[in-house]
Amino acid sequence: MQKLRTIIRNSKGATAIEYGLIAALIAVAAITAMSSLGGKVGTTFNNVSANMKVS
């Protein structure tokens, strides 16, 4: 029973898991934002390229 109490009181593992979850959420948000922005940047470069060929 004493070992169980010691494990429950140890918060280092919980803190590491929380930081891992935060990092994962930030990574998902960054990937989502970059994929959305990447499509817009690609369209912009294609438009610029097409306008340069006409000139």
- Terminal Cα separation, in Å? 81 Å
Content-based structural category = mainly alpha
Poorly predicted regions are none
Radius of gyration: 24 Å
Order of helices and strands: HH
Question: Would you write up a description of this structure?
Answer:
Helix content is about 95%, strand content about 0%. It has 2 helices and no strands. The protein has helices at about 1-10, 10-55. The longest helix has about 45 residues, at about 10-55. The mean pLDDT is about 80.
How would the blueprint of this fold be written?
Layout: H1 2-9, H2 12-54
Q: What distinguishing features does this structure have?
A:
55 residues; mainly alpha
Short description:
The chain is mostly helical and 55 residues long. It has two helices and no strands. The protein has helices at residues 2-9, 12-54.
